[in-house]
Amino acid sequence: MEGGRILLAISLLALAFSFSTASDPSHLQDFCVAIKDAENGVFVNGKFCKDPKSVIAEDFSFSGLHMPGNTSNQQGSKVTPANVEQIPGLNTLGISLARIDYAPYGLNPPHTHPRASEILVVLEGKLYVGFVTSNPDHSLIAKVLYPGDVFIFPVGLIHFQFNIGKTNAVAFAGLSSQNPGVITIADAVFGSKPSINPDVLAKAFLLDKNAVTYVQSRF
User: Fold this and answer.
1) What pTM was computed for the model?
2) Measured CA distances, 67 to 2, 17, 54 (Å)
3) Higher pLDDT, 140 or 27
């Protein structure tokens, strides 16, 4: 049953991306399997290409998305990516995938993907999801999703998913980049190394400086 739901989710995501234009640059060959070793390689779109004569099926496959992620953390969520780092054959193809697991009331906290739009499909549970539009409106676009529901997060916008149910939740996300990147807002702002001057954050967030230093100490 679990395998069937995962297959359905991946099929829906693949179909959605087949009708879209990937955000990564177009490639000029069948594929460019990424390798870390520069010897005898050609540098394309952030990675060196493997000799096509040496390509194998494993370069285009990844196993593990059927396994629940460990949600025993402060946020109660776990993202399991399947991007170019896990599937070298994704290099230059402009797509990637992720599984997100949520404990009851688990949160995938507000974050952005600087290089990709995202399409999310819920397999299990009930998620409150949304994104915020850019300046000056800051409009919240949000709703509750149920199994089989799909939601879009436009590229670069802050978005989140929150499990509002009493049971575990699972979702799959397709992203329009081989390496979408992620910036978790709280981690970046309050957990930067070295720390941002508390006076800056106090003024930006309209907070007392002591409140800022306390929040920074939690990261």
Assistant:
1) 0.83
2) 10, 24, 30
3) 140
